[in-house]
Write a structure and sequence with these properties.
The complex is a heterodimer. Chain A is mainly α. Chain A is built from 13 helices and no strands. Chain A has one domain: MetI-like (MetI-like fold, Orthogonal Bundle). The two termini of chain A are 30 Å apart. The mean pLDDT of chain A is 87. By secondary structure, chain B is an all-alpha fold. In chain B, 75% of the residues lie in helices and 0% in strands. Chain B contains 15 helices and no strands. The mean pLDDT of chain B is 87. Classes of the chains: A mainly alpha, B mainly alpha.
């Protein structure tokens, strides 16, 4: 019996594990190897260059710019969609009329692809007939009109707004799920003690949402570190690399300039940053005794 | 909440909802308008010149059908395989745990946190070596594998809540583990499978990065890549681009509207991927 159990474990687990190791785990480690080579993507003739790629990375202004943009993006992604999502969740939890419709409207962008979202927002920012300049014109502020995606000063932030539009619905539903776990008798007890709505919200409900906040913030940080599609679609990292992220820089180096070794080095940097975030995430989760895994 | 606040709340929500709809409505409107209309600034407010020409244009393009066909040929098998593999692994982790299985489980689940960029160069090399670049195979294989972490996590968590007695009764009646999985576990797992199905379908359909890396010729492109490549062809024909975006999003919109419940549950649980 015990032996057949062992056999079955092996039989059922070997296929998924083999695929996972071959396509995910092994290539992940393999990237570390390529990051110390000068492979160009095609030639069989390449060599190990040691830490040269990482040294070059450190002094590469494009990578530094991309790193800075990734940081800006990460902080913005942790704040904008999540604060809005939290506000929406708290508002919709009140069972306002039509709350199902509201939820669907705020959630719909999540199911659109980054390509489509990017395209939609390119149009919003279109200088001649885009909605943003149109609204600014109608509000009597034509001096504020600009080519939002073509100016180095605004391109990154314009993309972040588009990104937030898509991500808000996700934070909203996670917060809605979190709100269902707030014990109602606690809220009612606070009400009996004479606490008004805002005081109850601040002192009772929000502290109970800490686990949801840890999840939401960690997820948006992790997702923003992956940010590639939407940047690639909206600006390609431009103008003049003003909206490059590490993920875009990695793609450009590897698949446009065919410096795969160098690209692998950027991906290793991105991986290590993500590792730090994930480690913090799990530590926080354990602290909250809310281990979801 | 004070009684008067409800009206204010409703008003605030409505304004936000309208703002949220503007981008989507813009695309919808554009798909029914001619280029000249849009360029003249009549996208948002002008109501004349409703046309179906944009849809006629893209539906007359053979390449659009080819893109859609490729996307289906990647999305359907990759969804099925990743869910199947995740179910196998999730079953073992939930019902047949062994010493160290928790470590293996966390190792598998950790895979969904990391950026795909760390896999790009080695996987490009792998499929270059196998001679599979510019076919649909790399996308099918990669999505089947990348889906394993989320499918394993969800199935393991779902199956952990299924009573052990179900399995034990079947084992006593002489069934083996595979029979238990297929005849006892799968039928009660339909809700979890529905969540995973909507999730995997949407992700793989919407994917842009992997087709960008693995395909070169037009006849192997998926719809999201095709959408981008046709932008050049229709660089100022915004209406055609709008119609194409809607056609490309139709399957995922349909899945969302039809299976909203499963979709949202899946996204909440698996939102780290994307």
């Amino acid at each position: 019996m015990q032996r057949s159990l062992r056999w079955w474990r092996l039989a059922l687990l070997s296929l998924p594990m083999a695929v996972y190791v071959a396509i995910v785990a092994w290539p992940l480690l393999d990237s570390f190897y390529y990051s110390v080579t000068n492979w160009n993507g095609f030639s069989a003739d390449y060599r190990i260059v040691g830490l040269e790629n990482f040294r070059a990375l450190y002094s590469d202004p494009l990578v530094r710019g991309a790193l800075r943009n990734t940081m800006v993006w990460t902080v913005a992604a942790a704040l904008l969609p999540n604060l809005l999502g939290l506000a929406l969740a708290i508002a919709l939890e009140r069972h306002v009329p039509g709350s199902r419709l509201f939820k669907s409207i705020f959630y719909l962008p999540v199911c659109l692809s980054a390509v489509v979202v990017g395209q939609i927002w390119v149009w919003i920012y279109q200088p001649d007939w885009g909605a943003l300049n149109g609204i600014l014109g109608a509000l009597g502020a034509p001096q504020s009109q600009r080519a939002w995606l073509a100016e180095p000063g605004t391109a990154l932030y314009a993309i972040i707004v588009a990104w937030s539009w898509q991500q808000t619905g996700l934070s909203m539903v996670i917060y809605l799920a979190g709100l269902t776990s707030v014990p109602q008798d606690l809220v009612e007890a606070a009400a009996l003690d004479g606490a008004g709505y805002w005081r109850r919200l601040w002192h009772v409900v929000l502290p109970m949402l800490k686990p949801a906040t840890v999840v939401v913030v960690a997820l948006s940080v992790i997702n923003s570190l992956k940010g590639f599609d939407i940047v690639y679609i909206m600006t390609g990292g431009g103008p003049f690399h003003a909206s490059d992220t590490l993920a875009v820089a990695m793609y450009d180096e590897s698949f446009k300039r065919y410096r795969m070794g160098y690209g692998a080095a950027i991906s290793v940097l991105l991986f290590l940053i993500t590792l730090g975030v994930v480690a913090t995430y799990f530590r926080e989760l354990r602290k909250l005794d809310e281990l979801t895994v | 909440m004070p009684p008067g606040a409800k009206g204010a709340l409703l008003a605030g929500l409505s304004v936000l909802a309208v703002l949220f709809c503007i981008p989507t409505i813009g695309v919808l409107l554009s798909s029914f308008k001619g280029t000249a209309e849009i360029a003249a600034g009549h996208l948002w407010f002008g109501t004349s010149g409703f046309t179906l020409d944009n849809y006629a244009e893209i539906l007359s393009k053979r390449s659009v059908y080819q893109y859609l066909r490729n996307t289906v040929l990647v999305t359907v098998p990759a969804s099925v395989v990743s869910i199947g593999l995740g179910t196998l692994a999730g079953y073992v982790f939930a019902k047949l745990p062994f010493r160290g299985s928790r470590v293996v489980f966390i190792g598998v689940v950790a895979g969904m946190f990391f950026p795909a960029q760390i896999l790009l160069v080695p996987l490009f090399r792998l499929f270059l070596g196998l001679g599979l670049l510019n076919t649909l195979w790399p996308m099918i294989i990669v999505h089947s594998a990348l889906g394993i972490p989320i499918c394993t996590l969800l199935m393991r968590n779902f199956l952990a809540a299924v009573p052990d007695a179900l399995r034990e009764a079947a084992i006593l009646e002489g069934a083996n583990e595979l029979q238990v999985l297929l005849r006892v576990i799968l039928p009660v797992s339909l809700p979890a499978l529905a969540v995973l199905g909507t999730l995997q379908f949407t992700w793989i359909w919407n994917d842009f990065l992997w087709p960008l890396i693995f395909t070169q010729s037009d006849d192997k492109r998926t719809i999201m890549l095709g959408l981008v490549s046709m932008k050049g062809q229709y660089s100022v024909a915004w209406g055609v681009q709008g119609a194409l975006s809607l056609v490309a999003s139709f399957p995922t919109l349909f899945v969302f509207l039809r299976f909203q419940r499963y979709f949202i549950r899946g996204m909440t649980m698996g939102s780290v991927k994307g």
